[in-house]
Write a structure and sequence with these properties.
With 491 residues, this protein is of the alpha/beta class. The chain has two domains: 4-387, ANL, N-terminal domain (Rossmann fold, 3-Layer(aba) Sandwich), CATH 3.40.50; 394-490, ANL, C-terminal domain (GMP Synthetase, Chain A, domain 3, 2-Layer Sandwich). The protein contains 17 helices and 26 strands. Strands 14, 15, 16, 17, 19, 20 and 21 form a seven-stranded antiparallel β-sheet that branches. The chain has a four-stranded mixed β-sheet with strand order 2-1-10-9. Pfam families: AMP-binding, AMP-binding_C. This is AMP-binding protein. Residues 405-480 form the AMP-binding enzyme C-terminal domain. InterPro entries: AMP-bd_C, AMP-bd_C_sf, AMP-dep_synth/lig_dom, ANL_N_sf.
Length: 491
């Protein structure tokens, strides 16, 4: 019984000897046949452990090719794959595990001890020592394309993590739409240092390229020199990095002197990209463009020709073939050319719901359209520009940070009286988390003390890079903290 669930097996039968995955750190290579076999081994193991359709399978592991067989085994078995952000604090990970209630937690060697601390149920590590004789695929009963495959946690509007449930339809239609709209093929190769617990690492290029028979080269912890060299070493044709990665890569001597003959285009995502980065690639005659997406849709939603991107940096272009976009003003009317409004997205690549959060789901999907909370405008050519966010969310180095969560952490410090957290634009990070603090009168102010306090409770990327101390926070006429004035004070 072949269906949308089993395409990785079909791909392996079409191109069994083609290299599917390469691990930069270990130098291991898997053909599609080997990837298929590894996926079936994990499927058999999980079934033998009593994992059933709809059960959650959580993973806490750094980037490696070992992640993909687990991902596909979950798809083949109808299990819900829950990749965990290993950058989060122990408290945050426990909260997500409590919410998702997985039947098993899989870890790599690096995080196995942590796994034992935070999860008291079934635990297994990669590389595993289990063996499966002659694994075969037995179809999952009562399978539907709308069944969930992935659950990726993203920050909530109030700082609480939300499990974004993505069906087979959502993942596969994003991949198919990307392949057709971006003209991907079996000749393409991507170098991926994006974290594989994010939709960008999984769904932006990795799954689409595996679907069309290309090669995914996986890097572990990002190193600018290693990453930019890998683009040439592995003859990459298309790769995605966030602006902070690009900033580090263009500063290497290798980038300055190397040519990149196999690269069709460099892609940027995760945060608005400074035009200075565009200029470095354009000067070298390299194709460079950026995209827009979010966990709840895609994340691929737009396509722009590289030549057009060079002429109008910052544009993400037009919606892809099988999704639609609208930009609506406050009155609900479609925006005119040049008018800024909120971006709405529609398509079969959209998420199903937020796990255990019907209210947030209802607020996010309006008449079948995803209300993104992001502000955009369209020019006379029909190309879209993302110009800001209607929410307070901060994007720093490709990671989403919600100010209220950081504020709630800092205000618990015994010597803090008031705090406001905002994102301040930064050439390297896109934005930096910045805390403005009014302290108790008898406390000697210390930036490092606040940062160390936050590190004990928050993921490292949420810790303020700047801490500024004021005698009083500015207020609006109704008594609210005036964050606009705070931003203006340092910009």
């Amino acid at each position: 019984m072949q269906n949308e669930q089993t395409w990785i097996l079909d791909r392996a039968s079409l191109t069994p000897s083609k290299i599917a995955l390469i691990d930069i750190q270990t130098k291991r290579k898997w053909s599609y046949e080997e990837l298929s076999n590894e996926s079936l081994k994990w499927l058999c193991y999980l079934r033998n452990e009593g994992i059933k359709k709809g059960n959650r399978v959580a993973l806490l592991a750094e980037n490696s090719i070992d992640i993909f067989p687990i991902l596909f085994a979950c798809g083949l078995g109808g299990f819900i794959y829950v990749p965990l952000n290993w950058r989060l604090s122990k408290r945050e990970l426990i909260s997500i595990l409590n919410d998702s209630s997985p039947s098993i937690l899989i870890t790599d060697e690096e995080f196995h001890n942590l796994g034992e601390e935070i999860f008291k149920e079934k635990l297994v590590r990669i590389p595993s020592d289990f063996s499966v004789d002659s694994p075969e695929f037995n179809p999952t009963p009562q399978w539907q394309s709308t069944d969930p495959w992935l659950m990726i946690y993203t920050g909530g509007t109030m700082g609480n993590p939300k499990g974004v449930l993505l069906s087979f339809d959502a993942v596969n239609w994003n991949a198919l739409n990307t392949i057709l709209s971006w003209n991907l093929s079996c000749e393409d190769c991507t170098v991926n240092y994006m974290p594989l617990f994010h939709t960008g690492g999984l769904n932006a290029l990795s799954i689409p390229i595996l679907m069309c028979g290309g090669t995914v080269v996986v890097g572990n912890k990002f190193d600018a020199e290693e990453a930019i060299r890998s683009v040439n070493d592995y003859q990459s044709t298309i790769s995605l990095f966030v602006p902070t990665m690009y900033q580090s890569m263009i500063e290497t001597d290798y980038f300055q002197h190397a040519s990149f003959p196999t690269v069709k285009v460099f892609l940027s995502g995760g945060a608005p990209c400074p035009q200075t980065i565009y200029s470095h690639f354009i000067k070298k005659g390299l194709k460079f463009k950026e995209g827009y997406g979010l966990t709840e849709a895609g994340p691929n939603n737009f396509y722009i020709d590289s030549d057009d991107a060079a002429k109008k940096p910052g544009s993400v272009g037009k919606s892809m073939m099988f999704n639609s976009i609208r930009i609506k003003n406050k009155n609900g009317a479609i925006c005119k050319v040049g008018e800024v409004g909120e971006l709405y997205i529609k398509g079969r690549h959209m998420f199903t719901e937020y796990w255990n959060n019907a209210e947030e789901t209802k607020n996010a999907i309006i008449d079948g359209w995803l209300k993104t909370g992001d502000l955009a405008k369209v020019d006379g050519d029909g190309d879209v520009f993302i110009v800001g966010r209607s929410k307070d969310m901060i994007i720093t180095g490709g990671e989403n940070v919600y100010p209220l969560e950081v504020e709630q952490c800092i205000v618990n410090h015994p010597h803090v009286r008031e705090v406001a957290v905002v994102g301040i634009r930064d050439e390297k990070w896109g934005e930096v988390v910045t805390a403005f603090i009014v302290s108790s009168s008898n406390w000697v102010c210390s930036e490092s003390e606040i940062q160390n306090y936050c590190r004990e409770q928050l993921g490292t990327y949420k810790v303020p890079k700047k801490v500024l101390f004021l005698d009083e926070l500015p207020k609006t006429h109704v008594g609210k903290i005036d964050k606009k004035r705070l931003k203006e004070s340092v910009n």
